[in-house]
Design brief:
By secondary structure, this protein is α+β, with helices and mostly antiparallel strands. It is globular. The structure holds adenosine-5'-triphosphate and magnesium ion (MG) (2 copies). Adenosine-5'-triphosphate binds next to strand 5, strand 14 and strand 15. GO terms for molecular function: ATP binding; glutaminyl-tRNA synthase (glutamine-hydrolyzing) activity. This is Glutamyl-tRNA(Gln) amidotransferase subunit B, mitochondrial. Its EC number is 6.3.5.-. It catalyses: L-glutamyl-tRNA(Gln) + L-glutamine + ATP + H2O = L-glutaminyl-tRNA(Gln) + L-glutamate + ADP + phosphate + H(+).
Length: 625
Amino acid sequence: MSRISTAELSRYLLTGRFSRRGCLNSRLSRIAPVRQTSLSSQGRSLGTSAETATAAPPSATAAPITPLRKQLKEQAKALKASGKKKKKNKADNQTVPGWELTVGIEIHAQLNSARKLFSPAATSFNDKPNSHVALFDVAMPGSQPLFQPEVLIPAVRAALALNCAIQPISRFDRKHYFHWDQPAGYQITQYYHPFARDGRVVLHARDGIAPEDGDRVEIGIKQVQMEQDTAKTTAQPGDVHWLDFNRVGLPLIEIITLPQIHHPATAAALVRKVQMLLASVDACVSGMEAGGLRADVNVSVRRTDDAAAGGKLGTRTEIKNLSSFKAVEDAIIAERDRQIAVLEAGGVVEAETRGWSLGSTETRRLRGKEGEVDYRYMPDPDLGPVVIGDDLVAHLASSMGVLPDAEIDELVGRYGLSAKDALSLTTVDDGARVQYFYNVLDALEARLGLDKTGAASDQRHALLAANWCLHELGKLTELSSDLGMTPEGECNVPSAALAAILAHLHRREITAKVAKELLWDAFRGEVTADSVTQKIDADKLWFKELSEDEYAQLADQVVQGEDKVLGEFLRFKQGKAKAYPQGKLMFLVGKMMRAGTEQRMDPASAERVLRARIEDVYLPRLEGR
Ligand SMILES: Nc1ncnc2c1ncn2[C@@H]1O[C@H](COP(=O)(O)OP(=O)(O)OP(=O)(O)O)[C@@H](O)[C@H]1O
Ligand SMILES: [Mg+2]
Ligand SMILES: [Mg+2]
């Protein structure tokens, strides 16, 4: 299925205009145009919302943030820095003998919409504070909420990605509490009649779940509801707080899981996966680190005996506002251990709301847990029900594109990528890198004259393209500032230019070293798809490989005086050593590469010829002695 960006869909559904630019994953299939939608609230239908549709373009989608990539990088760095010991501790800390941990998570994600939930004010959080505020956003007397139907596009896509059943009718309630960041004294939310229910998220081992959960675990989603965000508070010295009402009223979804998570690593994996799913359908503005996604974790413990006897779950405490995957895992571990200590000392766990600060080792009490009574929920009399038509749901489902798990399976099954590389390719640049890979692959197949409709059994060119899109491009980002990757999968190294380089490499007309130099040239804009071949010609970079005989001569040259090394190969042949002495072979290949003309040698050919010479000539000679 084709994936179309949310902004693009909004334009189409609201105004009937649709441009093919921005159509993601277009390699996979083409979209069927929608004819009619029946999306309305309070009797307003989409066709009449011309005012909304022609207003300023979305600014939210332009946020230059790639939080997931950064978090993955930082996590990998931290893991590397902490060495194996940390990994072991983390794995060890997933269970406490005699106790069962239970976790349910509420995830708040900011929807990728151009307007606020109940006012046409723009959703921009990088602009001057308090510059996008409608009268209703600050609860001016007499102002009324005006539901912005376009928020349903990212909201429904998110719910579909979470396998939820979309509810044809949903309603808004007022949830009361007083705080300076909430001008009305209540938040408008959908607690009792959410727009989506009964979903599920499948987590695999590759998603980083606890080893105790095996290969795969499924977590139920109780419901997904729409609600308003609050104003942003910035603390200043002297107990002064600055408020930015640009954020108040931004459309959020709250995703509520069932209490089905039993290990801290699995909880973090769930949040990561939800973020990945939301990003893959373009439903969410930004990830955790940028504040676009926040998680509240609900934690309880009970004795395993009680669990086995089917007893009630323990009393839950809730840790609010966690803003990184690591914080989710660490806070759960700390809270689990605190509750167990309380119970083992004969105490009782109190239902309360607790806080967690980064780098901390314990949670701290903030207040008693608010209950439904405290919130004094009541239906919002100013808002009618939200009616979502089947045709809209069907259209959004058909235009979502391939979800990450299916994409990873395809990359592994069809092109032979490792699961780890496939996961990275689909997550870096918030999913744009894999689109770049498809663009490169299309251009490469065109250059190589391959028919992409046929199920070609040899996919080596695709694996080569994937490795370069991930690893070689990754090296560029490590050494230079930014690739400038767009959601459509284009960057400072145009896909056509990379394909031109890879076509020569695949045909063994240049070496990998030359290809890497050309990649830098393309990055600096010094070569284009059309000038790659010219440049190779001008700089005499063509790879004129040595003949088999020339390789064999070099091999003979480097084994001179290496009887001791050859002895190791003999020991393996005679069954006296378990493992093939690959290290020794590579040592000799290194010698060959240094002895020959680099421009004319391929390490793989050198290895193949050398191995054959050792086996066919030198070992029989040694055996004959
Ligand atoms: N005993 C329990 N142990 C752990 N988690 C639980 C337990 N009981 C419920 N939960 C989880 O707590 C969460 C409750 O979220 P929900 O939004 O329904 O209520 P809330 O926390 O009172 O609301 P809010 O925090 O939005 O005001 C769910 O994720 C649920 O799975
Ligand atoms: Mg909640
Ligand atoms: Mg809660």
